[in-house]
Amino acid sequence: MNQPLRQGKKFSLVLAAFLIVLTACGGGNNGGSNASPSPSPSSSAAASPQASAKEEASPSASAEKVTIEYWQYEFPAKVDLINELIQEFQTFHPHITVKQTNFPYDQYSQKVATLVPAGKGPDIINLYYGWLPQYVASGYLQPLPEDAFPPAQIESDYYPLVSAAKLDGAYYAIPTAVRTLALFYNKDLFAKAQIAQPPATWEELVESAKKLTEKDAKGQFVIEGFAWEPGSQLHHWFRDGLLPQAGGQDLSEDRRKVLWDESPAGLEAFRYLLDFAITHKTGINGFYNDDSNAFKTGHAAINVDGSFRLGSFKKDAPDLNYGIAPLPAYKSQSAPASFWANAIPKNVQGAKLEAAKEFLKFLTSKEVQEKWVEKVGELPAQKAVGSQDKYAGDEKLGPFIKQLDYSKAHFFIDENQERSLIVNAANEVLLNNVPVEQAFKDLVAKTQKIYDDYWAKQDKK
Questions:
Q1: Which residues pair with 251 in a beta bridge?
Q2: Which CATH number is 8-179+338-408 given?
Q3: pTM attached to this predicted model
Q4: Of 65, 94, 280, 460, which one's alpha carbon is 20 to 30 angstroms from that of 406?
Q5: Residue 55, pLDDT above cutoff 90
């Protein structure tokens, strides 16, 4: 469910912080660089989701030959799919050679920090939306060319969460696919506990989690009723799920002020999250390594997780009997969303820029978005693609897509620090017996400081 996942001293300082951020979104496969042919529409497929990547492509054998480099972290399904897409693109654009370069996830930012300033960086880079403010602040990216990606068209065609890629009035990145969170539930464990339906409200989630929890004679978890891992997806659930569902607001319209404590809703949402571990005792941090593994191995009955997990479950746990349901609602509905997006570094110009635009238009075409669903498991970024019956009516994909119209993508200043603050606040209550009210107050103040420091630097420019 969104971007640094940039030159001089300012660039190095920012990128040093990214080395830790990379633990948030993970992947892996050896990629190196690969070149081959793939199709790209010459008029904006990003602007028109119904447009075919092939019907508007116009290969030009006599055009100036150009090579561009595409960077993404190592995630097997994505690396394999991009290799396939490159082949297809180059068939329709024989004058453009695309080379894919991949780095291990935990080395990705380090490679960017060392190679980009040396002039050896990519022409198109894939990055997490939550890293965008720091990339843009460091002067690393250029706004998306509006002739290929008109802002009004983006806002018309894409799900609302795409607005997180808009900074200072310009879009700096464009997603092929998006993610949101939903409720994963183990059907066998639900049947054993005689629970007929997945929980649809906050209250039902608590009741179900209690019934599903199993412990041994020593009080140790055998089955978590609700997988509790604040550092995984639950910190997103708090900001863009629980908080707005309780009637609270995340940030001010100008993205400068944290509004969590502007009403009682913030504390209510924070307490609700912590109570699964502290009061209800239906889950604990680190059980079976993490929440995803606990659920995958049948040791957690319910987990809040992302649509990106579908592909790995299909591969690693083909016999797992599970279902997907929208996140339980309270006073309203809301779901966290995020995305990885493609951007163009600032120094890409001339023929390379034109080639990069063509490849990005191809990557956002209807055909490619559909392949992304099939091969990676992420959701289409454009409404007209995602709303097709084959996706909206799908047992697994449907609940995720249903939530995209009311999903929210938090504007991160520093994704790693903001996540860590919520994890630390939860630990203060759980491990050090700090009152929930005090932990929440400190959390808001520390989060606000991140925003104050960022905007103070922007205002000096």
A1: 258
A2: 3.40.190.10
A3: 0.78
A4: 280
A5: no
